[in-house]
Amino acid sequence: MKHKVTRAAGTGFTHLVLGGYTLLALFPILLVIINSVKSKDGIFDSPLSLPTAETWSLVGFEKVLAKSPFIHFFGNSLTVTLVSLVLILVLGAMAAWALSEYKFRGSKLLAIYMAFGIMVPIRLGTVSILELVVKLELTNTLTALILVYVAQGLPLAIMILGEFIQQVPKELKEAARCDGVGEFKIFFQIILPLIRPAVATVAVFTMVPIWNDLWFPLILAPGEETQTVTLGVQQFIGQYVTDWNAVLASLSLAVLPVLVMYVFASRQLIRGITAGAVK
Amino acid sequence: MKRAFPWHIAVFLAPAFLIYTAFSALPLLDTLRLGFFTTHDSGHQTFVGLANYIKLLTDPDWSAGFWNAMNNNIKFFLIVMFVQNPIALLLAALLSMHGVRGAKGYQTLIFLPTLLSVVIIGFIWQLILSPLWGVSEKLMGFVGLADYFQPWLGDESSALITLSLISVWQFVGVPMMLIYASLIAIPDEIIEAARIEGASSWHIFWTIRLPLILPTLGLVTILTFVGNFNAFDLIYAVKGAIAGPNYSTDLLGTFFYRTFFGYQSQIGSPTMGAAVATTMFLIILSGVGVYFYFIQRKLQRFAF
Question: Where in this chain does the record put each ABC transmembrane type-1 domain (chain A) (predicted)?
């Protein structure tokens, strides 16, 4: 009997801590979204209540969309993230395959060289990256951002994909080779489809830092034409800092796409982290 | 007979190798080189040996700013390390207990803020802590603490701590997930055996589970270290490049940015910037080195 009571108390404590922390994690985000659809009076008089018929207002969103090319920023972010992602995954898988499948002189050394970028932040090379981008006349282009993000994402992608490629049974490849199938066909038609789950995991990992980055858009592509959402919101808020409706609306606009993506990908992401961490 | 050159290997490797080399490896090497040069007004650069580093560490115009950023960065790291990771450990330990209902849901929701941009998170907290809006004051009022509210982000003595705690709030999900994964990977038999011997859950946690997840705690430490000594976005979003008030929130990342691009009356210098970046590189490299050295020792000890 006594045992049961302590057990119930323990479960209660567990849910209190976990629930409490979950609330703390969500509260700031929800607060911003709730207040972004209120009038100015609503925001200041009753910040903690849901919008009512009286305080409901979309004026913030109207202002943001009128005063800043938000949709355009969104398109830039989407282009940069998706193109970088595809390149990282395809080129990373190709390199991972070459490094784990073929043993040639210097292959170990090459693998270490490529892995170096996992621990050393690419930001530290910014001075020379900017110089290079200027020399190539790529300042204020999305191409510059894409090239840098691909270089940044490749090392981790190669390492994780390499681990999965090594688990592909030898017999599959040997059988294909016996049938005279070429190396490129083996990779693109046998290996790549087999490691799809790993590719999806790496995709989510790589996508988030690229979408959220401020540093490289600020330095390599600060022009209005090429601003990403993160930089665009940063600049917009700097300009309209006193317009609370607009600020809250722009923050909500930046948060919502990520929330929508998370609804669809959270399962994959959580499973990926849990599986990857144990290795 | 000499074998034909393996063209397929080259084709598989070349694109990744070239992009990585051109936009990551070579720029990093070139930055190390540039740190030994100085930029003249005419724009051309000459070799000056260690002069930039001596200037950075001893010239009062530079060293005050550098050591300030360095000290702040160490504080930032220590606060994040000793607040974020114990909370993560607690949450992970609770999540990994048998039969906790809704564990997946808690995980998913607590992890959510890590996916948002640091810039957005910085602005959101700036609004919440703003005395103009008064949300924090109101919330503290519910528990009778309204009088203790301060504009923490604007105060020199508390701005850095507040920013570190914002960072903790955002990223606690990452160590939580890593620790959780290693906790559930511990075989049930070990825990069962201890339980049959009569060990309490508390005892089992401290003497069996915690030692078994030490490698993960090591990984969490080094990830925190690299992330924090490279931090920039949060400070820049909330406080701008000047990292106010009075540089009290300046980190190496913002110091590097100002040195490279200049601010107010000071003109930016790529070579001085390279010297700062190289210093950051050495700090991060030594952290990573210490980590691998200890992990290596650990592995050897387990082998015996």
Answer: 74-265
